[in-house]
Amino acid sequence: MHFFQNDFYFVLPELFLFGASLSLLMFGVIYSTSVSHGKPGLMKVMSWASIVCLAMTLGLVLNTPVHSTVVFSQSLLLDDLSTFFKFLILGGSILSILMSVQYFETENMRNFEYLVLVCLSTLSMLLLVASYDLISMYLALEMQSLCFYVLAASQRDSEFSTEAGLKYFLLGAFSSGVFLLGCSFLYGLTGLTNFEAYALFFAQQSNIYQTSDWIFVQIAFLFILLGFLFKLSAAPFHFWAPDVYEGAPTSVTAFFSIVPKVSIFGVFIKLFFCSFYELALLWQPVIIASGMLSLLVGAFGAFAQKKIKRLLVYSSIGHLGYMLLGLSCLTIEGLQSMLAYLIFYIVMTVHVFACVLALKDLKTGQRIRYVEDLKYLAQSQPLVACAFVLNFFSMAGIPPLAGFCAKFYVFFAALGASLYFFVAVALFSSIVSCFYYLRFIKFMYFHKETSVSVEYVQMDQQKAWMISITSYLLVYLFFCPTNVFLWSEKVALLFLN
Amino acid sequence: MGDTFLFFFFSFFVLFSAFMVIRSKNPVYSVLFLILVFCNTAGLLLLLNLDFFALIFLIVYVGAIAVLFLFVVMMLDIKLAEMQESIFFYLPIGGFIGLIFFIEFYFLFNKEFVPLHLETLSTGSTSMLTLQFYVYAFWAFVLYGFSAPHFAQKFRAYSTHFFEQLRGLEHQAHQNLEYVIWPTYVDSKTPVEALGQVLYTYYFYFFLVASLILLIAMIGAIMLTLNPHRAVRRQQVFEQNARDFAKTVHKIRTLK
């Protein structure tokens, strides 16, 4: 009896990461408590080890022979689409660890479990984008969230971190519950949990609008969408995000802003574009409303913020609005533009967090926290200031940079789908958000000259490379976005199958 | 008869402990009685062949909720005197809700159960019949009381019918030795077995991911609480237990 003999070959990357995380855990447990080694801190070793593990998983994912198959009695779907998202997730995780190696040292973090949890949450996200069943999706989602709650609270000597963890836990558990309620409504109505089965079911039930069950279908979709939008921190459900992202250690904030967006969007697209596409008119308005609110919240919420991390959270909520705009087109072009936006967003976020993590005052040992702290940056570190400017121009969508390309393409697709009002709102909020991106630049370059000079801790090599490569990409992707667009189009076209 | 005995045993203890939950003076005892209620209810569920539900009931209610209650009660330090004031204070509203509950059951039994029993009595095995009879008799006693003429009539009809059926079954069994009880030939699985057969084969993936979630919960709990690098003030359990409350606060000297 070899039920799943071949299935295990197909999930080799996930299995590898699973084994590697457990080995990392064992390694950490044994060595961090060994007296003969003097109870070492292990953070540096562990971070490099986990980077190697994730990189090897990435290699396995990219060289997978599978193009489309369903494994584990229809629990997971492994296809090129999930490979695309897995690539983004693994890349994002590797970069977010790489940029915080120095941070672990300077902040004197000694809990090696942090890196095990990063690896395990990456594993859960790989499973999440591959899931093909409501149950496997929920389990992967829960696994991911559980890792995140702990990561958010991982800096135990800071009250903000504890607050962030607790807040995230309570609200996340609530939203998981709501999401699960929606799923059970759907299961109660149809008796199905499989994504493909849903697609077939809703394709056949063309008169479901007239049945008495329609109200329950509406409720189920509302709850499921609410759960997803909450996890994405899209606008009406964004209240937890600023507190959590600000309170958590900056390395965790970087990880939160870069990676989970990909995984949640991956499974969201899969569920709604593959299974529930027949009911698109039901869920499109919700996405449009949430997208518009996200844009406005992202634009106006950032005005009052003085702290850099909070401001970046609001900016990411705004970016989320653009991605939802791309999604709500319901067309291949819209999807493609959204995926391209996701890639540009990752590049920009990696860039900005690498910069933020690099800045630490040499004398006082303080990290920069407020926007005003950037006052002396242009004098003491002109190159980093320059990189900052480049990135904020890109985020604002000023032409010769990648951000413009991304926004332009989303607007183009949305106009093609006749979402004129949404596009008008997006344009408006884009103009408004320019203001606070420019405020950064004003602080860096146009403040009144003072004699005070601040010296910053020297940046380590990894971050220097990362910032320079992403800066290069920000310019390069404006002139040659072909690769990104071709790639995202290939992925978007996979939905046709 | 074993089933019947167990049914009465469990139901008696459910009622008894439920009563003790609200009547015991010490809140810790209340919670312990609550746990006893849950355990006995799990026993009742087992009698109905709902073994999975019984186990889940134990795990969720006793393992999680009741223990949580216990923690809260122990932490809050509720004074015993406060509890004794209001024995009849909540009686009006509690009685009203109880009345609604009993009215619901009255309608349920009056409408659904009685005719159903009388018609379907002929099927089913002897022990189930007896069990059904006792369940009915018990509820009938609770709901109608034996004095009501309406019930007395119904009950008489029911019991004569029941014993006739029982005698008939036994008679049949003795006369005709090739009597076959078909239900015993049906290959049935208990719910736990049935769940296990799919959970460990087709859907082992879910089981595996659930175990990973538990692992993460464990890592997280250890990471957030254990701190080997700093001097932590540990709890001296023995000293704490040996401490006398009356002697904790001393009066050292009197001011002039």
UniProtKB/TrEMBL annotation, chain A:
Q: Offer an example of a GO molecular function term for this protein.
A: NADH dehydrogenase (ubiquinone) activity
Q: Which domain of life is it from?
A: Eukaryota
Q: Name one GO cellular component term.
A: membrane
Which UniProt keywords are listed? Answer: Membrane, Mitochondrion, NAD, Translocase, Transmembrane, Transmembrane helix
**Residue ranges constituting the NADH:quinone oxidoreductase/Mrp antiporter transmembrane domain according to the UniProt record:** 131-431
Q: Does the keyword Ribosomal protein apply?
A: no
Protein name (record)? NADH dehydrogenase subunit 2
TrEMBL record, chain B:
Q: Which reaction does it catalyse?
A: a ubiquinone + NADH + 5 H(+)(in) = a ubiquinol + NAD(+) + 4 H(+)(out)
What membrane topology term does the record carry? Multi-pass membrane protein
**Keywords from the UniProt entry:** Electron transport, Membrane, Mitochondrion, NAD, Respiratory chain, Translocase, Transmembrane, Transmembrane helix, Transport, Ubiquinone
Q: What protein family is recorded?
A: Belongs to the complex I subunit 6 family.
Supply one GO CC term from the record: mitochondrial membrane
Q: Where in the cell is it found?
A: Mitochondrion membrane
* Top EC class for this record: translocase
Q: What is this protein called?
A: NADH-ubiquinone oxidoreductase chain 6
TM ranges are 6-22, 29-48, 54-76, 88-109, 129-146, 202-226
**Which species is listed as the source?**
Ostreococcus tauri
The source's domain of life comes to Eukaryota
Write out the GO MF terms: NADH dehydrogenase (ubiquinone) activity
For this protein, the record's InterPro entries field holds: NADH_UbQ/plastoQ_OxRdtase_su6 (IPR001457), Nuo/plastoQ_OxRdtase_6_NuoJ (IPR042106)
Q: Does the entry feature the keyword Membrane, yes or no? A: yes
Q: Give EC number(s), comma-separated.
A: 7.1.1.2
What function is annotated for this protein?
A: Core subunit of the mitochondrial membrane respiratory chain NADH dehydrogenase (Complex I) which catalyzes electron transfer from NADH through the respiratory chain, using ubiquinone as an electron acceptor. Essential for the catalytic activity and assembly of complex I.
Gene3D superfamilies hit by this protein: NADH-ubiquinone/plastoquinone oxidoreductase chain 6, subunit NuoJ
